[in-house]
Amino acid sequence: MTEPLVVLKDVQKHFGDLHVLKDINLEIGKGEVVVVIGPSGSGKSTLCRAINRLETIESGTITIDGKTLPEEGKALAQLRADVGMVFQSFNLFAHKTILDNVTLGPIKVRKVKKADAEKRAMELLERVGVAHQAQKFPAQLSGGQQQRVAIARSLAMDPKVMLFDEPTSALDPEMINEVLDVMVNLAKEGMTMIVVTHEMGFARKAANRVVFMADGQIVEENTPEEFFTNPQSDRAKDFLGKILTH
Amino acid sequence: MGEILRDYDVLGAFWMTIYLTFFSAIGALVIGTILAVMRVSPVSVLRAAGTAYVNVIRNTPLTLILVFCSLGVLYILEINLADPQSPTSIRDNAIRWAIVGLSVYHAAFVCEALRSGVNTVPLGQAEAARAIGLTFGQSLTQVIMPQAFRGAIAPLGSVLIALTKNTTVASIIGVAEASGLMKEIMENETASFAVFLLFALGFVILTLPTGMLFTWMSQRLAVKR
Asked: Is A104 close to B132, i.e. CB distance below 8 A?
């Protein structure tokens, strides 16, 4: 593995009585694509959101590129700018055009000039295949298009690592592939990615490693091929048995 | 009726109503926005202060607030908002304190309208704003408040209509607005019923278009999700 970019050490979190993250230790190397899978309620989304502190943790440390996640404030905002995040529900800014969605971060956070930000935004929109929709509003686009814009919005910040929190779970089946294609290309270009997903095809095609979570714990970690063909734990066997039989 | 319109400055009185409404609306919007930001801020002291303001002011009669501004602040504490030496100082002080009182009072309602607007903005919008590295202030000004204002247009319109009508309370501290003139005319003349209708019509002319404009804007500017 290359040098670690994201390191989670002894991370613990509760939601009330529920222990959602139990002794999480995980290292993600530069350029690595890690897919996190597991049954719902296993804590995989929480894990993903904890990495840019949308969820706070109770103990343990999370470091990104050597820097520990700071407390809420300017320093945290700066760190988040380096961590792209793609949500299940897209979360495009509903009152802004597609183009403005992509340029907002670069202009306000990176202080890029408007013209430069727009030029780069158009390149990114071109890359994800929605450049011709640049002047529309999010509600006018399909889910798949919105999610690709969300990816472009994250890319516009030149993130060191990108987090995907179930990016295709809210999409109609025929739109899933257009989003996955963009993600596969990103992976090929060497982007460091942490992807929470149920898309086994994506995991097989693009992931370097699969992390299987259940009940707040990392139960098993392996290469996709090993994991899918030869799972070690009973929990993983049970889970794969349920989802792969259909 | 013609005599009344000739002998009394009805248009001037309604102009004062518009004047009070305009400046009080701006004041209420500014204070109300600050209060709304306080009430949604992560700082508990600010939240508590905002809540206390709204609870105290919203539950106090406007008459009390204006009388307090006039008798309490102006005459007892002697805080002037106009040069006391100027020949129009009594009139100017009354108008300006009326604007302050109206602003302070309606700010509580603007705050609640905006807060209901903030509640129309899904949590994911704030998360996405933070995730691209915007600070709390930037998330608020770039993402949350623009959407909250659009979601709050209809209730803000109701506040503005209420404000227009509530300017009549300013007559009790001596501001010569429409209702004050109506009382004066009714005391001096006999055509009471016609006078009443005249002034009622005047207020409808002011508020009806306001309501229609805000309804139109709330549909036009609504954030499509």
From this structure: yes
Q: How far is A60 from chain B (nearest CA, A)?
A: 21
Query: Helix A74-81 crosses helix B123-131 at what angle (to 10 degrees)?
Result: 80
| Chain B residues within an 8 Å CB radius of A165 | none
Q: With an 8 Å Cβ cutoff, is A94 touching chain B?
A: yes
Judge whether A167 is closer than 8 Å to chain B, CB to CB: no
A235 Cβ under 8 Å from any chain B Cβ: no
Amino acid at A244: L
* B147: three-class secondary structure by DSSP: helix
Q: With beta carbons under 8 A apart, name residues in chain B contacting A100.
A: none
A75 vs B contacts (CB less than 8 Å): none
CATH value of B2-220 in 1.10.3720.10, 1.10.287.1490, 3.90.340.10, 1.10.10.10: 1.10.3720.10
| Residue predicted with more confidence, A107 or B72 | A107
Q: Which two tokens stand for residue B114?
A: 């905006």
Read off the pLDDT of residues B37-46 as tens digits, 9 standing for 90 and up. Answer: 999 888 899 9
User: What is the domain range of residue A68?
Assistant: 4-244
Does the distance separating the beta carbons of B224 and A140 come in below 8 Å?
yes
pLDDT tens column, A111-154: 999 999 999 999 999 999 999 999 999 999 999 999 999 999 99
* Three-class DSSP labels, A59-93: EEEEEECCEECCCCCHHHHHHHHCEEEECCCCCCC
Q: How far apart are CA B196 and CA B194, in angstroms?
A: 5
Q: Residue A139 belongs to a domain with what CATH number?
A: 3.40.50.300
pLDDT tens digit sequence for B110-159:
999 999 999 999 999 999 999 999 998 999 999 999 999 999 999 999 99
How far is it, in rounded angstroms, from Cα A109 to Cα A120?
A: 15
Residues on chain B bordering chain A, Cβ-to-Cβ distance under 8 angstroms: 42, 122, 124-125, 127-136, 138, 142-143, 146-147, 150, 223-225
Handedness of CA A132, A138, A140, A145 (dihedral sign): positive
The minimal CB distance from A108 to the residues B128, B138, B146 is found for: B138
Partner residues linked to A64 by β-bridges: A6, A67
Nearest by CB: A93 against B128, B133, B138: B128
Q: What is the pTM of this model?
A: 0.84
- Closest Cα in chain A to B131: A80
Going by C-alpha positions, the residue among B28, B62, B58, B60 that lies closest to residue B160 is B28
ipTM of the complex model: 0.89
The token pair at B146 is 């623009």
- What's the total number of domains in chain A? 1
